[in-house]
Automatic annotation (TrEMBL):
Residues 158-191 are annotated as: Disordered. Residues 159-168 have a biased composition (Polar residues). This is Tetracycline repressor TetR C-terminal domain-containing protein. Coiled coil: none annotated. Residues 21-107 form the Tetracycline repressor TetR C-terminal domain. SUPFAM superfamilies: Tetracyclin repressor-like, C-terminal domain (SSF48498). It comes from Paeniglutamicibacter kerguelensis. Keywords: Transcription, Transcription regulation. The keyword Transcription applies. The keyword Transcription regulation applies.
């Protein structure tokens, strides 16, 4: 399956015509090419979030995304993070949309929220007041809205030139092991 997925990734990459120097357009084109190719091969695409191919298709896509974000001005950890965020989003979103094409209950529609949205106004007033807007959303539209937000965040990050996220490790408390488990039953206090 890894070889098939890598072949699909190569096919998506082969559709590219935009240079990384036009990094925003190039990333949007890559997302479009990935989505469109995944929709052609949904049974392979659904494995994209759980397999690493380490093949030429995956590496070409990785290099292209890194080149785009580098062109935007990111480097080091910020570059790696932005690549990971974008790649994860594209793979998960495109795989999810591809999966939906194989669902017989889909009926050829791609609403973001499937089914009725019934909300009690006393408990969920915002859900109820946003109901029509939520039900009008379409999955592909939301996919590209996310792509645009990731690209905008990368642009802002590059302009501000600070690390995208600061590692902020929290030391475990004395009574906790490094995994956060205390070894005590829930709700009990340390001695």
């Amino acid at each position: 399956m890894q070889e098939l997925l890598d072949r699909v990734l190569r096919m998506a990459h082969s559709r590219m015509t935009t240079s990384p120097t036009a990094w925003e357009a190039c990333l949007t084109e890559l997302a479009t090419a990935t989505l469109d190719t995944f929709l052609q091969y949904p049974s392979i695409a659904v494995t994209a979030t759980s397999l690493t191919t380490s093949g030429p298709g995956e590496l070409e896509s990785m290099e292209l995304m890194l080149a785009c974000f580098s062109e935007a001005g990111l480097q080091g950890r910020s570059l790696a993070e932005q690549y990971a965020i974008f790649a994860s989003y594209v793979l998960a979103g495109a795989a999810g949309l591809a999966r939906d094409t194989t669902d017989p209950a889909n009926n050829g529609t791609y609403e973001w929220f499937a089914g009725p949205l019934q909300a009690d106004p006393s408990h969920h007033p915002l859900a109820l007041s946003s109901r029509d807007d939520i039900l009008a959303l379409e999955e592909r539209e939301i996919f590209f809205a996310g792509i645009n937000q990731i690209i905008a965040a990368a642009k802002e990050k590059a302009q501000n030139q600070g690390p995208f996220s600061q590692p902020n490790p929290v030391a475990p408390l004395e009574h906790e092991n490094t995994m956060g488990f205390t070894g005590r039953p829930p709700g009990t206090l340390p001695n």
